[in-house]
Design a protein that fits this description.
The protein has 579 residues and is mostly helical. Helices cover 74% and strands 2% of the residues. The chain has a domain of 136 residues. The longest helix is centred in the N-terminal third of the chain and has 192 residues. The termini are far apart.
Length: 579
């Protein structure tokens, strides 16, 4: 490596030396060139001096010759002047005659030019008059054409506006008819959906035997609170970063922990996890949101030893005053509370978590998702109706099977249980109710439009929940099919089918898409609310919990609320009237 550096240094020195030699040679050449140019300049200066001297001698000689020539010229000039004077007098006479002749010719020429100019101006004026006449005629025709075009456009616009107004009136009339028909159907549907006591029915069916929840040992209120906690964690556990598989126990484990039958306490860790989430969002404020040492609750590390005190302060801060649970936690730890109080504590935390921004955003996002699904479902239904109407126009002899109505007639087990009372009302009394509805249409027609819209929304939601129950099993398979068929159906929907087979294929595809939307809408609606099916004669509510696994009915202790003052004599009188 060092040798290479030395070799490189030698090469650099040689290059520098060679460069210096070249520069010196260049400087010497420049000096020689400069001396040569100076010698040439001196030689040139001497030559110019000799030339100037020769020119001066030549100029003196020329001046002498000019003086001699001038003398000779003066003599000749005097002789020439005398001759010219004679010749000039003759020439003046001749020029005078010639001038007179030229003046005469010029006068004739001017007269000809004036005549030609007048003729040219007359021709030019005539051409300008013709051009102006043509221009004015063209402008007049253009104005007439523009006026006719504007009149045609105005007439076309008036005709278009008239046709548009006629279509608008026709659409308005059709819309009013549809609204009137829909209003009648809604009124009839409301009348038919009104609950009817099964003792009033002529073909009343015996009530099924209802069994209690297996191995249920806690009170109904505590079990209801546990169900609420379980549904809440299923729906919003992901938003709260709660691992449902590891941190949320089953219903049996929670019941065993409430009754102290399990070896491991699962309620306290669950309460601790939910309390941490509640302290983070929505949080606590006010003077009660601090410990005895002045530390804020959201800054305290929650563990098994202080969870009872933090829960007590949290309940007081959120409730703005003590309640039964906070009073019990004053002198008892959380593990020493009764099962109802423990379940009530979890339910209280769930209710407070619902006020948090995280849960509210989750609910809003699910509502927006449901709105988009409902919108897409309505679009699919509209396309399906249009396609069926187009098929009826092109192929009136073909019959379109109404698969949607057939699918709506299929009821899930939960729906059958919820509609036992309403299906039993299809008796001769139904005709009387329909007749009563028709008679009362005049009085119901005076309702406000806002009330009708609210009723429409409620009916649509009910129909969606009922119709989508049947499509719940096809949700998973429908997602892939819909994603694969969206691109293909997008181009196909633009082209109008020509044959009956294409119509049937397109109708089947739209019906499948409609079922998929219903299934998604039904599944997403379960994440926001449970399905309420109604009440029986004992005022017991029937519920279908999305993650409960079956139909839940309130116990008699809850269903008998409000029946203490019930007049049994009226029931006996009505029963005798029916008989």
């Amino acid at each position: 490596m060092q040798k290479q550096h030395e070799r490189q240094a030698k090469l650099n020195k040689r290059k520098e030396k060679k460069k210096e030699q070249q520069e010196n040679a260049q400087k010497i050449a420049e000096a020689k060139m400069h001396r040569r140019l100076e010698r040439q300049a001196a030689i040139e200066a001497s030559k110019q001096a000799k030339v100037r001297k020769a020119q001066e001698r030549l100029q003196q000689k020329l001046e002498k010759q000019e003086m001699l020539q001038a003398a000779k010229q003066a003599k000749k000039e005097r002789a020439r002047v005398v001759a010219e004077q004679k010749k000039k007098s003759k020439e003046e006479v001749r020029q005078l005659k010639h001038l007179q002749k030229l003046q005469k010719l010029e006068k004739q020429k001017l007269e000809k030019e004036v005549k030609a100019q007048q003729l040219m101006e007359a021709r030019k004026k005539k051409k300008e008059d013709v051009a102006n006449a043509k221009y004015h005629e063209a402008m007049r025709k253009a104005k007439e054409r523009e006026l006719k075009r504007q009149q045609a456009v105005l007439l076309k616009a008036q005709e278009k506006e008239r046709l548009k107004e006629e279509k608008r009136r026709a659409k308005k009339l059709v819309k009013e008819r549809k609204l009137e028909q829909k209003r009648r159907e809604m009124i009839l549907s409301r009348e038919l959906k009104k609950p009817v006591e099964d003792m009033v029915l002529r073909d009343a069916k015996p009530l099924p035997e209802l069994t209690r929840v297996k191995d249920l040992k806690i009170s109904g209120s505590a079990f209801a609170d546990l169900c609420m906690v379980q549904e809440f964690l299923h729906n919003f556990g992901t938003a709260l970063d709660i691992d449902f598989d590891n941190e949320v126990p089953s219903m049996a484990d929670m019941q065993g922990s409430l009754l102290n039958e399990n070896d491991e306490d699962v309620i306290t860790p669950l309460c601790q996890t939910m309390l941490l989430a509640a302290l983070d969002d929505p949080g606590v404020e006010g003077p009660c949101a601090e410990t005895a040492l002045g530390v804020k609750l959201d800054q305290v590390e929650v563990n098994e030893s202080n969870v009872s005190e933090i829960l007590r302060l949290f309940i007081i801060a959120r409730n703005a005053e003590p309640n039964e649970i906070s009073d019990s936690l004053t002198d008892k730890p959380f593990t020493a509370l009764s099962p109802s109080q423990k379940a009530g504590s979890l339910a209280f935390i769930c209710n407070e978590l619902l006020c948090g921004r995280t849960i509210c955003r989750e609910i809003e996002s699910k509502i927006e998702y449901m709105s988009s699904l409902r919108h897409n479902k309505w679009i699919a239904e509209g396309n399906l109706r249009k396609l069926k109407a187009l098929q009826q126009q092109k192929f009136p002899e073909s019959k379109i099977p109404n698969k949607t109505t057939a699918s709506e007639e299929k009821k899930s087990p939960g729906k059958k249980a919820s509609t036992q009372a309403t299906t039993a009302t299809t008796t001769p009394n139904e005709k009387e109710r329909k007749r009563k509805v028709v008679e009362d249409e005049g009085s119901d027609g005076s309702d406000d439009d806002d009330d009708d819209e609210d009723d429409d929304d409620e009916e649509i939601e009910e129909d969606d929940d009922e119709d989508d129950d049947e499509a719940g099993e096809e949700d998973e398979g429908g997602d892939d099919d819909e994603d694969d068929s969206d691109d293909e159906s997008g181009d196909e929907e633009k082209a109008e089918p020509e044959t009956l087979e294409e119509f049937e294929k397109r109708i089947k595809k739209l019906e499948k898409k409609q079922v998929q939307f219903r299934s998604k809408l039904f599944t997403s609606s379960h994440s926001l609310r449970a399905l309420y099916l109604g009440q029986d004669r004992f005022r017991r509510m029937y519920w279908v919990l999305p993650y409960g696994g079956s139909l839940y009915i309130e116990g008699n202790e809850n269903g008998e609320t409000g029946l203490e003052n019930f007049d049994m004599s009226k029931l006996s009188e009505e029963h005798s009237n029916i008989d």
